């Protein structure tokens, strides 16, 4: 389950617990929301890491191609 879905699920649980007057259910809802936020942060970190890695690979390929081109021209 994605982090955003976990946050929504937690909100629903917390609201249901508030309506029913069930403190344990409200607490589970708050816990689910916290877990969801942590998952969201992890997902964001993974996205940013992948983006940086793709950028580094693209730059490395560009530099390698420039070196190959120079070698073919006899520099």
Describe the structure.
By secondary structure, this protein is an all-alpha fold. It has one domain (3-73). The chain is built from two helices and no strands. The chain has helices spanning 3-20, 23-73. α1 (3-20) packs antiparallel against α2. The longest helix has 51 residues, at 23-73. The protein is rod-shaped and about 80 Å long.
Q: Gist?
A:
This protein has 75 residues and is mainly alpha-helical. 92% of the residues lie in helices and 0% in strands.
Low-confidence stretches: none
Q: From the alpha carbons, calculate the radius of gyration and give it in angstroms.
A: 24 Å
Main β sheet profile: none
- The mean pLDDT is 94
How far the N terminus sits from the C terminus, by CA atoms, comes to 55 Å
Overall domain count: 1
The ordered string of helix (H) and strand (E) elements is HH
DSSP summary, beta strand count: 0
Number of helices: 2
Shape: rod-shaped
* SSE class: mainly alpha
Classify the helix fraction into a percent range. Answer: over 70%
Strand content: under 5%
């Amino acid at each position: 389950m994605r982090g955003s879905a976990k946050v929504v699920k937690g909100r629903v649980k917390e609201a249901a617990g508030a309506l029913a007057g069930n403190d344990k259910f409200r607490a589970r809802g708050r816990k689910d929301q916290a877990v969801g936020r942590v998952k969201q942060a992890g997902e964001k970190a993974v996205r940013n890491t992948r983006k940086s890695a793709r950028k580094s690979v693209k730059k490395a390929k560009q530099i390698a191609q420039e070196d190959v081109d120079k070698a073919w021209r006899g520099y």
